[in-house]
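To close the chapter, one final illustration. This time we ask the reader to focus less on the individual chains and more on the assembly as a whole: which components sit near each other, and how the overall shape emerges from the parts.
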Amino acid sequence: MNGLERIRTALNAKKPDRTPVFPLVHYGTARAAGYKIRDFSTVPEINARCLIHAYRECGYDGVQPSVAVMVEGEAVGGRVEYPEDNVPFVKEVFLKTPDVDLLTMPEPQTTSPMSLVVESTRICAAEIGKETYIAPSIMGPLNSAGQMRGVENLMFDFFDRPDFVNELLDFTTELGIRYGKALLDAGAHGIFIGEAMCSPSFISPNFYRQFVLLRQKRLIDALMKHGAESTILHICADTKPIMKAYAVETGTTVIDLDWQVNVAETLDSDEMRHEKTLVRGNLDPAGELLRGGPPDVMAASRRLIESVGKNARFILGSGCAVNPDSLPANCRAMVEAAERYGRF
Amino acid sequence: MNLLDEIKHSVVSGKMEETIAGINTAISTGIAPGDIIRMGLIEAMTVVGEQFKNSKIYVPEMLIAARAMKTGLQILKPLMVGSEVKSLASVVIGTVKGDLHDIGKNLVGIMMEGAGCKVTDLGVDIAPEKFVEAVNVHNPDFLAMSALLTTTMPAMRETIAALEKNGKRNLVKVLIGGAPISQKFADEIGADGYAGNAAEAVDKIKAMVDETN
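The assembled structure is written out below.
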Protein backbone atom coordinates (compact mmCIF):
# COMPACT_ATOMS: atom_id res chain seq x y z
CA MET A 1 0.00 0.00 0.00
CA ASN A 2 1.14 3.57 -0.54
CA GLY A 3 0.44 6.34 1.94
CA LEU A 4 -2.70 7.51 0.20
CA GLU A 5 -4.18 4.01 0.14
CA ARG A 6 -3.15 3.44 3.75
CA ILE A 7 -4.82 6.56 5.09
CA ARG A 8 -7.88 6.11 2.88
CA THR A 9 -8.27 2.54 4.12
CA ALA A 10 -8.13 3.70 7.73
CA LEU A 11 -10.61 6.50 7.01
CA ASN A 12 -12.97 3.88 5.56
CA ALA A 13 -12.85 1.97 8.86
CA LYS A 14 -10.83 -0.88 7.37
CA LYS A 15 -7.43 -2.24 8.34
CA PRO A 16 -4.49 -1.05 6.23
CA ASP A 17 -1.26 -3.06 5.92
CA ARG A 18 0.23 -1.19 8.87
CA THR A 19 -0.48 1.77 11.14
CA PRO A 20 -0.49 4.94 9.00
CA VAL A 21 2.04 7.63 9.97
CA PHE A 22 1.25 11.31 9.48
CA PRO A 23 3.12 13.78 11.69
CA LEU A 24 2.01 17.42 11.97
CA VAL A 25 4.99 18.88 10.17
CA HIS A 26 5.12 21.96 7.96
CA TYR A 27 7.75 24.66 8.67
CA GLY A 28 9.70 21.84 10.33
CA THR A 29 10.55 20.52 6.86
CA ALA A 30 12.45 23.63 5.74
CA ARG A 31 15.90 23.02 7.19
CA ALA A 32 16.14 19.40 6.04
CA ALA A 33 15.62 20.62 2.47
CA GLY A 34 18.25 23.34 2.85
CA TYR A 35 15.94 26.34 3.23
CA LYS A 36 15.16 28.89 5.92
CA ILE A 37 11.67 29.05 7.41
CA ARG A 38 11.21 32.49 5.81
CA ASP A 39 11.74 30.99 2.33
CA PHE A 40 9.35 28.17 3.19
CA SER A 41 6.78 30.72 4.34
CA THR A 42 6.96 33.12 1.41
CA VAL A 43 7.63 31.12 -1.78
CA PRO A 44 5.02 28.51 -2.77
CA GLU A 45 7.45 26.42 -4.83
CA ILE A 46 9.87 26.24 -1.88
CA ASN A 47 7.03 25.43 0.48
CA ALA A 48 6.05 22.46 -1.69
CA ARG A 49 9.69 21.48 -2.33
CA CYS A 50 10.41 21.25 1.42
CA LEU A 51 7.27 19.23 2.12
CA ILE A 52 7.97 16.82 -0.73
CA HIS A 53 11.64 16.48 0.20
CA ALA A 54 10.81 15.62 3.81
CA TYR A 55 8.09 13.20 2.71
CA ARG A 56 10.57 11.36 0.49
CA GLU A 57 13.30 11.40 3.15
CA CYS A 58 11.09 10.18 5.98
CA GLY A 59 8.56 8.02 4.16
CA TYR A 60 5.48 8.98 6.14
CA ASP A 61 2.01 8.77 4.62
CA GLY A 62 0.67 12.33 4.35
CA VAL A 63 1.86 15.91 3.86
CA GLN A 64 0.43 19.10 5.26
CA PRO A 65 0.93 22.27 3.17
CA SER A 66 0.86 25.25 5.52
CA VAL A 67 2.77 28.31 6.66
CA ALA A 68 1.83 28.95 10.30
CA VAL A 69 -1.12 30.03 12.41
CA MET A 70 -0.93 33.61 11.11
CA VAL A 71 -2.19 32.98 7.56
CA GLU A 72 -5.80 34.14 8.03
CA GLY A 73 -4.68 37.04 10.23
CA GLU A 74 -2.39 38.35 7.51
CA ALA A 75 -4.92 37.69 4.76
CA VAL A 76 -7.35 40.20 6.29
CA GLY A 77 -4.66 42.85 6.73
CA GLY A 78 -2.67 42.05 9.88
CA ARG A 79 1.02 42.93 9.77
CA VAL A 80 3.18 39.82 9.94
CA GLU A 81 6.85 39.50 10.71
CA TYR A 82 8.83 36.75 9.01
CA PRO A 83 11.99 35.96 11.02
CA GLU A 84 14.70 34.43 8.87
CA ASP A 85 14.57 30.98 10.41
CA ASN A 86 11.71 30.95 12.85
CA VAL A 87 7.93 30.83 12.71
CA PRO A 88 6.20 33.95 11.28
CA PHE A 89 3.80 35.76 13.59
CA VAL A 90 1.27 38.60 13.56
CA LYS A 91 3.12 41.69 14.78
CA GLU A 92 0.12 44.00 14.51
CA VAL A 93 -3.43 42.70 14.40
CA PHE A 94 -5.87 44.13 11.89
CA LEU A 95 -8.88 44.49 14.18
CA LYS A 96 -7.56 46.96 16.72
CA THR A 97 -11.12 48.11 17.24
CA PRO A 98 -13.87 45.56 17.74
CA ASP A 99 -15.76 46.14 14.51
CA VAL A 100 -16.42 43.27 12.11
CA ASP A 101 -17.53 45.71 9.40
CA LEU A 102 -13.87 46.69 8.96
CA LEU A 103 -13.14 43.21 7.57
CA THR A 104 -13.25 42.34 3.88
CA MET A 105 -13.61 38.67 2.98
CA PRO A 106 -10.28 37.71 1.34
CA GLU A 107 -10.18 35.63 -1.83
CA PRO A 108 -8.07 32.53 -1.04
CA GLN A 109 -6.84 32.07 -4.62
CA THR A 110 -5.34 35.54 -4.82
CA THR A 111 -4.77 36.84 -1.29
CA SER A 112 -1.35 36.17 0.23
CA PRO A 113 -0.47 34.07 2.15
CA MET A 114 -3.56 31.91 1.57
CA SER A 115 -2.74 31.85 -2.13
CA LEU A 116 0.72 30.49 -1.27
CA VAL A 117 -0.77 27.52 0.57
CA VAL A 118 -3.26 26.96 -2.27
CA GLU A 119 -0.40 26.93 -4.78
CA SER A 120 1.80 24.69 -2.63
CA THR A 121 -1.13 22.30 -2.27
CA ARG A 122 -1.54 22.27 -6.05
CA ILE A 123 2.15 21.41 -6.54
CA CYS A 124 2.11 18.70 -3.87
CA ALA A 125 -1.10 17.20 -5.26
CA ALA A 126 0.29 17.14 -8.80
CA GLU A 127 3.63 15.67 -7.79
CA ILE A 128 2.83 13.20 -4.99
CA GLY A 129 -0.95 13.35 -4.64
CA LYS A 130 -1.45 9.91 -6.17
CA GLU A 131 0.80 8.25 -3.61
CA THR A 132 0.35 10.26 -0.41
CA TYR A 133 -2.43 12.00 1.50
CA ILE A 134 -2.50 15.79 1.09
CA ALA A 135 -4.14 17.65 3.99
CA PRO A 136 -3.25 21.37 4.10
CA SER A 137 -3.89 23.50 7.20
CA ILE A 138 -6.50 26.10 7.84
CA MET A 139 -7.31 27.72 11.17
CA GLY A 140 -10.57 26.96 12.90
CA PRO A 141 -13.00 29.78 13.72
CA LEU A 142 -11.54 30.69 17.12
CA ASN A 143 -7.84 30.53 16.18
CA SER A 144 -8.53 32.56 13.09
CA ALA A 145 -10.40 35.18 15.15
CA GLY A 146 -7.49 35.33 17.59
CA GLN A 147 -5.09 36.12 14.76
CA MET A 148 -7.33 38.93 13.52
CA ARG A 149 -8.24 40.54 16.83
CA GLY A 150 -5.33 39.50 19.08
CA VAL A 151 -5.79 36.63 21.48
CA GLU A 152 -5.86 38.69 24.67
CA ASN A 153 -8.27 41.26 23.20
CA LEU A 154 -10.54 38.43 22.14
CA MET A 155 -10.52 36.95 25.64
CA PHE A 156 -11.75 40.28 27.04
CA ASP A 157 -14.30 40.53 24.21
CA PHE A 158 -15.89 37.30 25.42
CA PHE A 159 -17.08 39.25 28.47
CA ASP A 160 -17.17 42.84 27.25
CA ARG A 161 -18.85 42.39 23.85
CA PRO A 162 -20.05 38.83 23.17
CA ASP A 163 -22.11 39.96 20.17
CA PHE A 164 -18.95 41.12 18.45
CA VAL A 165 -17.30 37.74 19.19
CA ASN A 166 -20.25 35.95 17.61
CA GLU A 167 -20.09 38.14 14.51
CA LEU A 168 -16.34 37.70 14.20
CA LEU A 169 -16.62 33.92 14.56
CA ASP A 170 -19.27 33.85 11.85
CA PHE A 171 -16.85 35.73 9.61
CA THR A 172 -13.92 33.41 10.37
CA THR A 173 -16.12 30.34 9.86
CA GLU A 174 -17.14 31.61 6.43
CA LEU A 175 -13.51 32.41 5.63
CA GLY A 176 -12.49 28.89 6.70
CA ILE A 177 -15.12 27.39 4.41
CA ARG A 178 -13.92 29.44 1.41
CA TYR A 179 -10.27 28.76 2.12
CA GLY A 180 -10.83 25.04 2.69
CA LYS A 181 -12.82 24.75 -0.54
CA ALA A 182 -10.02 26.47 -2.48
CA LEU A 183 -7.53 23.98 -1.05
CA LEU A 184 -9.77 21.05 -1.96
CA ASP A 185 -10.13 22.47 -5.47
CA ALA A 186 -6.31 22.60 -5.62
CA GLY A 187 -6.17 18.84 -5.03
CA ALA A 188 -6.21 18.37 -1.26
CA HIS A 189 -7.68 15.09 -0.04
CA GLY A 190 -8.48 16.34 3.42
CA ILE A 191 -8.23 19.51 5.48
CA PHE A 192 -6.38 19.99 8.77
CA ILE A 193 -8.12 22.47 11.08
CA GLY A 194 -6.01 24.08 13.82
CA GLU A 195 -7.90 25.20 16.92
CA ALA A 196 -5.26 25.42 19.67
CA MET A 197 -7.24 28.07 21.52
CA CYS A 198 -10.17 25.73 22.14
CA SER A 199 -8.03 23.78 24.57
CA PRO A 200 -9.53 23.33 28.04
CA SER A 201 -6.18 24.53 29.35
CA PHE A 202 -7.20 27.85 27.81
CA ILE A 203 -10.97 28.39 27.50
CA SER A 204 -13.68 26.61 29.46
CA PRO A 205 -15.65 23.71 28.01
CA ASN A 206 -18.69 25.99 28.37
CA PHE A 207 -17.16 28.72 26.21
CA TYR A 208 -16.10 26.08 23.68
CA ARG A 209 -19.66 24.86 23.46
CA GLN A 210 -21.24 28.31 23.58
CA PHE A 211 -19.07 30.08 21.02
CA VAL A 212 -17.19 27.58 18.86
CA LEU A 213 -18.57 24.05 18.62
CA LEU A 214 -21.43 24.67 16.19
CA ARG A 215 -19.24 26.84 13.99
CA GLN A 216 -16.64 24.10 13.76
CA LYS A 217 -19.44 21.74 12.80
CA ARG A 218 -20.66 24.15 10.13
CA LEU A 219 -17.12 24.41 8.75
CA ILE A 220 -16.58 20.66 8.76
CA ASP A 221 -19.99 19.92 7.20
CA ALA A 222 -19.32 22.43 4.40
CA LEU A 223 -15.87 20.98 3.64
CA MET A 224 -17.14 17.40 3.61
CA LYS A 225 -19.98 18.45 1.34
CA HIS A 226 -17.42 20.01 -0.97
CA GLY A 227 -15.62 16.67 -1.35
CA ALA A 228 -13.15 16.54 1.54
CA GLU A 229 -12.31 12.92 2.38
CA SER A 230 -11.51 13.95 5.92
CA THR A 231 -11.11 16.79 8.36
CA ILE A 232 -8.36 16.53 10.96
CA LEU A 233 -9.30 18.72 13.91
CA HIS A 234 -6.43 19.65 16.21
CA ILE A 235 -6.95 21.07 19.68
CA CYS A 236 -3.91 21.37 21.94
CA ALA A 237 -3.17 19.94 25.39
CA ASP A 238 -5.58 17.85 27.48
CA THR A 239 -8.87 17.69 25.60
CA LYS A 240 -10.58 15.09 27.80
CA PRO A 241 -13.04 17.62 29.31
CA ILE A 242 -14.45 18.39 25.83
CA MET A 243 -13.94 15.01 24.19
CA LYS A 244 -17.54 14.27 23.23
CA ALA A 245 -18.10 17.71 21.72
CA TYR A 246 -14.69 17.72 20.03
CA ALA A 247 -14.55 14.15 18.73
CA VAL A 248 -18.23 13.45 18.06
CA GLU A 249 -20.43 16.54 17.92
CA THR A 250 -18.20 18.50 15.53
CA GLY A 251 -18.57 15.65 13.03
CA THR A 252 -14.84 15.63 12.32
CA THR A 253 -13.36 12.53 10.71
CA VAL A 254 -10.12 12.63 12.69
CA ILE A 255 -9.15 14.21 16.00
CA ASP A 256 -5.49 15.11 16.39
CA LEU A 257 -4.54 14.59 20.02
CA ASP A 258 -1.72 16.35 21.79
CA TRP A 259 0.73 14.32 23.88
CA GLN A 260 -1.10 14.93 27.18
CA VAL A 261 -4.00 12.63 26.26
CA ASN A 262 -3.90 8.82 26.31
CA VAL A 263 -4.86 7.60 22.83
CA ALA A 264 -5.83 4.05 23.80
CA GLU A 265 -8.04 5.27 26.65
CA THR A 266 -9.64 7.84 24.34
CA LEU A 267 -10.46 5.22 21.70
CA ASP A 268 -11.91 3.00 24.39
CA SER A 269 -13.80 5.75 26.24
CA ASP A 270 -17.59 5.81 26.51
CA GLU A 271 -17.65 8.84 24.21
CA MET A 272 -15.58 7.23 21.47
CA ARG A 273 -15.98 3.45 21.63
CA HIS A 274 -18.88 3.28 19.22
CA GLU A 275 -17.91 6.20 17.02
CA LYS A 276 -16.17 6.19 13.67
CA THR A 277 -13.83 9.10 14.50
CA LEU A 278 -10.15 8.29 14.01
CA VAL A 279 -7.46 9.43 16.41
CA ARG A 280 -4.17 10.82 15.20
CA GLY A 281 -1.49 11.12 17.88
CA ASN A 282 0.54 11.66 19.87
CA LEU A 283 4.26 11.55 20.51
CA ASP A 284 5.64 14.49 22.49
CA PRO A 285 6.94 17.08 19.99
CA ALA A 286 9.03 18.80 22.69
CA GLY A 287 10.01 15.49 24.30
CA GLU A 288 11.23 12.41 22.45
CA LEU A 289 10.68 13.97 19.02
CA LEU A 290 12.86 17.02 19.77
CA ARG A 291 15.21 16.06 22.55
CA GLY A 292 15.42 12.34 21.95
CA GLY A 293 16.99 10.36 19.12
CA PRO A 294 15.59 7.67 16.81
CA PRO A 295 15.77 4.93 19.50
CA ASP A 296 13.65 7.10 21.84
CA VAL A 297 11.15 7.85 19.06
CA MET A 298 11.03 4.15 18.11
CA ALA A 299 10.38 3.16 21.72
CA ALA A 300 7.68 5.80 22.25
CA SER A 301 6.02 4.93 18.92
CA ARG A 302 6.10 1.25 19.78
CA ARG A 303 4.49 1.87 23.18
CA LEU A 304 1.79 3.93 21.51
CA ILE A 305 1.11 1.44 18.71
CA GLU A 306 1.00 -1.47 21.14
CA SER A 307 -1.25 0.41 23.57
CA VAL A 308 -3.76 0.94 20.77
CA GLY A 309 -3.48 -2.71 19.74
CA LYS A 310 -5.17 -3.66 16.51
CA ASN A 311 -7.51 -0.72 16.54
CA ALA A 312 -7.65 0.54 12.97
CA ARG A 313 -8.94 3.96 13.96
CA PHE A 314 -5.43 5.18 14.69
CA ILE A 315 -2.84 7.22 12.81
CA LEU A 316 0.58 7.64 14.39
CA GLY A 317 1.22 11.38 14.72
CA SER A 318 3.30 13.94 16.51
CA GLY A 319 0.98 15.50 19.10
CA CYS A 320 1.62 19.02 17.86
CA ALA A 321 3.90 20.78 15.35
CA VAL A 322 7.22 19.06 14.66
CA ASN A 323 10.40 21.09 15.17
CA PRO A 324 13.00 21.31 12.34
CA ASP A 325 15.51 19.46 14.55
CA SER A 326 13.27 16.38 14.50
CA LEU A 327 13.83 15.82 10.78
CA PRO A 328 14.65 13.62 9.08
CA ALA A 329 15.90 10.97 11.53
CA ASN A 330 13.19 11.16 14.19
CA CYS A 331 10.29 11.32 11.74
CA ARG A 332 11.81 8.42 9.83
CA ALA A 333 11.93 6.48 13.11
CA MET A 334 8.15 6.90 13.44
CA VAL A 335 7.73 5.16 10.08
CA GLU A 336 10.19 2.43 11.01
CA ALA A 337 8.26 1.80 14.21
CA ALA A 338 5.00 1.49 12.27
CA GLU A 339 6.66 -0.91 9.81
CA ARG A 340 8.05 -3.03 12.61
CA TYR A 341 5.32 -2.95 15.26
CA GLY A 342 2.22 -1.69 13.48
CA ARG A 343 1.55 -4.52 10.99
CA PHE A 344 -2.04 -5.68 10.90
CA MET B 1 -20.24 41.22 53.43
CA ASN B 2 -17.72 43.85 54.57
CA LEU B 3 -16.12 46.29 52.19
CA LEU B 4 -12.86 44.41 51.72
CA ASP B 5 -14.76 41.18 51.04
CA GLU B 6 -16.83 43.02 48.47
CA ILE B 7 -13.67 44.25 46.72
CA LYS B 8 -12.25 40.75 46.82
CA HIS B 9 -15.43 39.34 45.35
CA SER B 10 -15.47 41.97 42.57
CA VAL B 11 -11.87 41.12 41.61
CA VAL B 12 -12.48 37.36 41.65
CA SER B 13 -15.46 37.80 39.32
CA GLY B 14 -13.53 40.22 37.11
CA LYS B 15 -15.87 43.17 37.65
CA MET B 16 -13.65 46.15 37.04
CA GLU B 17 -16.13 48.95 37.68
CA GLU B 18 -17.35 47.41 40.94
CA THR B 19 -13.73 46.96 41.99
CA ILE B 20 -12.98 50.62 41.35
CA ALA B 21 -16.13 51.74 43.16
CA GLY B 22 -15.35 49.46 46.13
CA ILE B 23 -11.80 50.73 46.39
CA ASN B 24 -12.90 54.37 46.25
CA THR B 25 -15.42 53.75 49.03
CA ALA B 26 -12.82 51.93 51.11
CA ILE B 27 -10.35 54.78 50.70
CA SER B 28 -12.98 57.35 51.66
CA THR B 29 -13.84 55.41 54.81
CA GLY B 30 -10.20 55.53 55.84
CA ILE B 31 -9.05 51.97 55.21
CA ALA B 32 -5.29 51.96 54.59
CA PRO B 33 -4.35 51.35 50.94
CA GLY B 34 -1.97 48.59 52.03
CA ASP B 35 -4.82 46.78 53.77
CA ILE B 36 -7.03 47.08 50.69
CA ILE B 37 -4.24 45.55 48.60
CA ARG B 38 -3.54 42.75 51.08
CA MET B 39 -7.06 41.82 52.11
CA GLY B 40 -8.86 42.81 48.94
CA LEU B 41 -6.64 42.35 45.92
CA ILE B 42 -3.98 39.84 47.01
CA GLU B 43 -6.52 37.58 48.71
CA ALA B 44 -8.67 37.77 45.58
CA MET B 45 -5.81 36.64 43.38
CA THR B 46 -5.10 33.76 45.77
CA VAL B 47 -8.70 32.63 45.26
CA VAL B 48 -8.34 33.10 41.48
CA GLY B 49 -5.16 30.99 41.50
CA GLU B 50 -6.88 28.20 43.40
CA GLN B 51 -9.92 28.27 41.12
CA PHE B 52 -7.66 28.11 38.07
CA LYS B 53 -5.68 25.18 39.46
CA ASN B 54 -8.95 23.33 40.10
CA SER B 55 -10.32 24.08 36.61
CA LYS B 56 -13.15 26.13 38.09
CA ILE B 57 -12.07 29.05 35.92
CA TYR B 58 -9.98 29.30 32.73
CA VAL B 59 -7.68 31.83 31.06
CA PRO B 60 -10.39 34.36 30.01
CA GLU B 61 -11.85 34.47 33.55
CA MET B 62 -8.36 34.80 34.97
CA LEU B 63 -7.58 37.64 32.57
CA ILE B 64 -10.59 39.70 33.59
CA ALA B 65 -9.84 39.12 37.27
CA ALA B 66 -6.25 40.21 36.60
CA ARG B 67 -7.50 43.30 34.79
CA ALA B 68 -9.67 44.25 37.77
CA MET B 69 -6.78 43.69 40.16
CA LYS B 70 -4.37 45.69 38.05
CA THR B 71 -6.80 48.59 37.82
CA GLY B 72 -7.15 48.47 41.59
CA LEU B 73 -3.39 48.48 42.07
CA GLN B 74 -3.05 51.50 39.81
CA ILE B 75 -5.39 53.43 42.11
CA LEU B 76 -3.82 52.24 45.33
CA LYS B 77 -0.09 52.17 44.67
CA PRO B 78 0.39 55.95 44.49
CA LEU B 79 -1.39 56.23 47.86
CA MET B 80 0.94 53.84 49.66
CA VAL B 81 3.30 55.32 52.22
CA GLY B 82 6.89 54.06 52.50
CA SER B 83 6.38 51.59 55.34
CA GLU B 84 3.52 49.90 53.52
CA VAL B 85 5.58 49.13 50.41
CA LYS B 86 7.05 45.72 51.03
CA SER B 87 7.21 43.02 48.41
CA LEU B 88 7.42 39.25 48.65
CA ALA B 89 10.15 39.09 46.02
CA SER B 90 11.30 40.94 42.95
CA VAL B 91 10.87 39.34 39.55
CA VAL B 92 12.03 40.16 36.05
CA ILE B 93 9.86 38.41 33.48
CA GLY B 94 9.79 38.13 29.70
CA THR B 95 9.04 35.93 26.69
CA VAL B 96 12.23 34.65 25.06
CA LYS B 97 13.80 35.72 21.80
CA GLY B 98 11.84 34.90 18.64
CA ASP B 99 8.61 34.32 20.55
CA LEU B 100 5.76 36.83 20.67
CA HIS B 101 3.32 34.89 22.82
CA ASP B 102 2.49 36.94 25.86
CA ILE B 103 -0.76 35.80 27.45
CA GLY B 104 0.85 33.13 29.62
CA LYS B 105 3.69 35.45 30.51
CA ASN B 106 1.28 38.29 31.34
CA LEU B 107 -0.81 36.02 33.54
CA VAL B 108 2.24 34.76 35.40
CA GLY B 109 3.41 38.34 35.87
CA ILE B 110 0.09 39.55 37.15
CA MET B 111 -0.42 36.58 39.47
CA MET B 112 3.01 37.27 40.92
CA GLU B 113 2.07 40.91 41.34
CA GLY B 114 -1.19 39.75 42.86
CA ALA B 115 0.83 37.69 45.34
CA GLY B 116 2.77 40.76 46.38
CA CYS B 117 5.85 40.52 44.15
CA LYS B 118 7.50 43.49 42.49
CA VAL B 119 7.37 42.56 38.82
CA THR B 120 9.33 44.07 35.94
CA ASP B 121 7.85 42.88 32.66
CA LEU B 122 10.33 43.14 29.79
CA GLY B 123 7.73 42.14 27.18
CA VAL B 124 8.20 39.66 24.34
CA ASP B 125 11.03 38.63 21.99
CA ILE B 126 13.66 39.28 24.66
CA ALA B 127 17.21 38.35 23.67
CA PRO B 128 19.54 36.70 26.24
CA GLU B 129 21.66 39.85 26.53
CA LYS B 130 18.52 41.89 27.29
CA PHE B 131 17.65 39.53 30.15
CA VAL B 132 21.21 39.86 31.47
CA GLU B 133 21.01 43.63 31.23
CA ALA B 134 17.71 43.61 33.14
CA VAL B 135 19.26 41.46 35.87
CA ASN B 136 22.07 44.04 36.12
CA VAL B 137 19.69 46.95 36.32
CA HIS B 138 16.95 45.55 38.55
CA ASN B 139 18.89 43.03 40.62
CA PRO B 140 15.82 40.75 40.95
CA ASP B 141 15.40 37.67 43.14
CA PHE B 142 13.87 35.78 40.22
CA LEU B 143 14.18 35.75 36.45
CA ALA B 144 11.10 34.21 34.80
CA MET B 145 11.10 33.18 31.13
CA SER B 146 8.27 32.03 28.89
CA ALA B 147 8.25 30.23 25.50
CA LEU B 148 5.34 28.73 23.58
CA LEU B 149 7.17 27.21 20.64
CA THR B 150 9.58 24.30 20.40
CA THR B 151 11.62 26.51 18.06
CA THR B 152 12.10 29.18 20.75
CA MET B 153 12.72 26.92 23.76
CA PRO B 154 16.50 26.85 23.10
CA ALA B 155 16.64 30.60 23.85
CA MET B 156 16.07 29.71 27.52
CA ARG B 157 19.26 27.67 27.58
CA GLU B 158 21.07 30.52 25.81
CA THR B 159 19.83 33.02 28.40
CA ILE B 160 21.05 30.87 31.27
CA ALA B 161 24.42 30.55 29.50
CA ALA B 162 24.54 34.33 29.07
CA LEU B 163 23.85 34.80 32.79
CA GLU B 164 26.70 32.42 33.58
CA LYS B 165 29.06 34.12 31.17
CA ASN B 166 28.37 37.46 32.81
CA GLY B 167 28.77 36.11 36.33
CA LYS B 168 25.11 36.67 37.21
CA ARG B 169 23.77 33.14 37.35
CA ASN B 170 24.19 32.74 41.10
CA LEU B 171 22.52 36.04 41.86
CA VAL B 172 19.11 35.10 40.54
CA LYS B 173 16.77 32.11 40.57
CA VAL B 174 15.59 31.17 37.10
CA LEU B 175 11.99 30.02 36.58
CA ILE B 176 10.68 28.83 33.22
CA GLY B 177 7.31 27.91 31.76
CA GLY B 178 5.20 27.67 28.59
CA ALA B 179 3.32 25.00 26.67
CA PRO B 180 6.26 22.87 25.45
CA ILE B 181 8.28 23.31 28.66
CA SER B 182 8.59 20.57 31.28
CA GLN B 183 10.41 19.94 34.55
CA LYS B 184 12.70 17.64 32.58
CA PHE B 185 13.64 20.46 30.23
CA ALA B 186 14.17 22.79 33.20
CA ASP B 187 16.56 20.25 34.71
CA GLU B 188 18.37 19.81 31.40
CA ILE B 189 19.08 23.51 30.97
CA GLY B 190 19.84 24.18 34.64
CA ALA B 191 16.82 26.32 35.50
CA ASP B 192 15.91 26.50 39.19
CA GLY B 193 12.23 25.85 38.67
CA TYR B 194 9.42 25.06 36.26
CA ALA B 195 5.76 25.95 36.59
CA GLY B 196 2.95 24.51 34.49
CA ASN B 197 0.67 27.52 34.94
CA ALA B 198 0.44 30.95 36.53
CA ALA B 199 -0.88 29.72 39.86
CA GLU B 200 1.91 27.16 40.13
CA ALA B 201 4.46 29.86 39.32
CA VAL B 202 3.32 31.81 42.36
CA ASP B 203 3.48 28.68 44.53
CA LYS B 204 7.04 28.08 43.29
CA ILE B 205 8.13 31.59 44.18
CA LYS B 206 6.54 31.42 47.63
CA ALA B 207 8.22 28.06 48.29
CA MET B 208 11.61 29.32 47.14
CA VAL B 209 11.29 32.50 49.22
CA ASP B 210 10.42 30.35 52.25
CA GLU B 211 13.49 28.19 51.60
CA THR B 212 15.82 31.16 51.55
CA ASN B 213 14.30 32.78 54.64
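Strands of chain A lie at 62-63, 79-81, 89-92, 133-134, 137-139, 190-194, 230-235, 254-257, 278-282, 314-317. Chain A touches chain B through 30 residues (CB under 8 Å). With these observations in hand, you are ready for the problems at the end of the chapter.
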